[in-house]
Amino acid sequence: MSNQLLKNKTGIVFGALDEQSIAWKVAERAVEEGARITLSNAPVALRFGKINELASKLQSEIIPADATSMEDLTTVFTRSKEILGGPVDFVLHSIGMSLNVRKGKHYTDLNHEWMLKTMDISALSFHKMMQVALKTDGIAEWGSVLGLTYIAAQRVFPDYNEMADAKALLESIGRSFGYHLGTLKKIRVNTISQSPTWTTAGSGVKGFREFFDYAQKMSPLGNATAEDCANYCVTLFSDLTRMVTMQNLFHDGGFSSMGISPLFFAEEAPSEK
User: Fold this and answer.
1) Annotation says 160 is catalytic
2) Domain boundaries, the chain
3) pTM over cut 0.85
4) Which CATH class is domain 10-266?
5) Candidate list 107, 150, 179, 232, residue with the active-site label
6) Among this protein's residues, is 150 annotated catalytic?
7) What are the angstrom distances between the C-alpha of 75 and each of 39, 69, 81, 132, 219?
8) Among residues 107, 160, 214, 232, which one is catalytic?
9) Nearest partner of 197 among 219, 175, 225, judged by Cα
10) pLDDT in tens, the chain (273 residues)
């Protein structure tokens, strides 16, 4: 159901890969709510993902970009302004990658050159994106910028590896840049700490099934789906949340507030006689 919360608004969605990805769902919901958008992802993702199908469905243009490249990001914002008729109203950063995780390197034995690449792709790209947006006047006043994160930025999930460090940096960048964009152009910047979600990228993390099942049992409402996250993003892109900024917003069914839940032990508890 559409409430046209984003009627007459425009945006850029970074990171849509396939039907499982949160960015894909966000793009669909944003357009359903009345927005016009452009899509961007790395050239390799364009070859192996299904983003062309999404672009066709949403009648949106794809602007390929390496999110670590200031030149590529400048192209994304300048082209989006041309295509959409001016500065955009919202931007989603849904980007993350770790070679150490892909190669199965333990946190105590990381390849630090790879780790630097992880930080660049997964966190510094958020800073670069907003820096370019500011210099190109790429986001309109009272616009909204969102980055996707995970609770491993605050709590230890050993198998999440260096991505936890990257997410902590991402959240810090969101707060710091949020101050500057807020004072300069009334642009709000927030991060969404999402439940474990079955995406192509997320399910590649070692032990992801355990992350998912544990959070499902511990969360009073269960895990938030990618569709749920897309709905939340729409509200944060809309004018209904104009005064929300510099926040790390947990969207996790209550998991982040839990200490212990009897439901977690219910399946293993011996039955009473």
Assistant:
1) yes
2) 10-266
3) yes
4) alpha beta
5) 150
6) yes
7) 12, 10, 10, 10, 41
8) 160
9) 225
10) 789 999 999 999 999 999 999 999 999 999 999 999 999 999 888 887 799 999 999 999 999 999 999 999 999 999 999 999 999 999 999 999 999 999 999 999 999 999 999 999 999 999 999 999 999 999 999 999 999 999 999 999 988 999 999 999 999 999 999 999 999 999 999 999 999 987 766 666 667 788 788 899 999 999 999 999 999 999 999 999 999 999 999 999 999 999 887 776 665 544 443
